[in-house]
Amino acid sequence: MKDSNSKPWRPFTANCCSVEDQAVFGNFSRCRPSRSDFSKNIAPLPSFRRLSFSSLSRSSSTRINEDLAQSFGPDLLDFQLSELRAITQNFSSHFLLGEGGFGTVHKGYVDDNLRAGLKAQAVAVKLLDIEGLQGHREWLAEVIFLGQLRHPNLVKLIGYCCEDEERLLVYEFMPRGSLENHLFKRLSVALPWGTRLKIAMGAAKGLAFLHGAEKPVIYRDFKTSNVLLDSDFNAKLSDFGLATMGPEGSNTHVTTRVMGTYGYAAPEYVSTGHLTTKSDIYSFGVVLLELLTGRRAMDKTRPKTEQNLVDWAKPYLTSSRRLRCVIDPRLAGQYSVKGAKEIALLALQCVSLNPKDRPKMPAIIETLEGLQHLRDMAVTSGQWPASPKASRSVVSAAKEKRENGAKIYWKNSPVTHSAKS
Ligand SMILES: Nc1ncnc2c1ncn2[C@@H]1O[C@H](COP(=O)(O)OP(=O)(O)OP(=O)(O)O)[C@@H](O)[C@H]1O
Ligand SMILES: [Mg+2]
């Protein structure tokens, strides 16, 4: 659990319903995937004539419930707080799955005893500690985005609850939790190389789907804790509270709201607020580096020069000899040498300082596809063990998470507009 001191600083947001809201949520039916996606696995999107983010932000909980129910119909369930209390034993710590910056997540179970016709299934209930309008906006963004977007690599939102000041979200339960837990929790079994590739591919497909929509969706908070895993290690993206509709043409989005998480956010985004799908590509590159090295994007427990993964790893990525020194020692040489080299180069491209040099998601998927069947294991080709210098320092995973998961916020209230890149 995160301690209360690590809570992100929240800015005072005088103008919560800025122009951005109109552009982002005002006409949600524009957020349509391409035709080819439709034919595969995408549920048709409802029409959102009544659902305006700006007006919903200001509405009473009764009005919000009415609007959401009318817009989503039976696709998304509006739960009562009492129902969610019942299925989580009053949000008991025994049912706690984890805790993020916005509250705790508890396991529950729903079936048709709770609601007639409800499919029996385990669920994850996120109890948002919303602290005012800012948290409400993120809750609403999550409902609106995930309520409409359906894809095998996006976590499924089953329902929501909006009662007085309470805001909750009900997701499908992901039995293997987050990628973060598997990569960095000391007690977890090391993820095999093939599983890491499978996860990278699943997450890439989720991002490609978002970016490939007619009006691209920028995910904005791509990181290992938001990549959830089902029982077969299929990856699904969660947490759309920060997602935003992308700019069209040469416009880039300038935002002054929450930005993402230290270590994952693209440098141009941190310094200027300019937001494009290429910001997500940067974060994807950081996650590739985490998969490769077993190190966190930002690790304050390490010496200064090693704290930022991208800065530390870059010099190692272009030489096979140096690369083997930074491969996750928990893999114990059970990784494809060629595959690791390709991932390193791909990651390097993704974290290019110039966003234009970063690849697009389809190219990333193509590269990853080519690596799935490589079997040239380092341990059998004499490339392991590598230098002991690279071994992971032994630190408490809980301490790491507490110190490294900080979100980035802008200090000023939001003034948002589109700008030419
Ligand atoms: N649908 C789910 N199924 C199973 N476990 C989940 C689910 N959603 C979240 N969790 C667990 O709860 C933890 C907390 O999730 P949450 O999204 O609230 O925070 P976070 O991603 O760790 O941090 P942040 O607030 O910075 O996004 C996750 O790391 C994961 O272990
Ligand atoms: Mg999360």
UniProtKB/TrEMBL annotation:
Gene3D superfamilies: Phosphorylase Kinase, domain 1, Transferase(Phosphotransferase) domain 1. Its EC number is 2.7.11.1. The keyword Transferase applies. GO terms for molecular function: ATP binding; protein serine/threonine kinase activity. Signal peptide: none annotated. May be involved in plant defense signaling. This is non-specific serine/threonine protein kinase. It comes from Ilex paraguariensis. The lineage of its organism: Eukaryota, Viridiplantae, Streptophyta, Embryophyta, Tracheophyta.
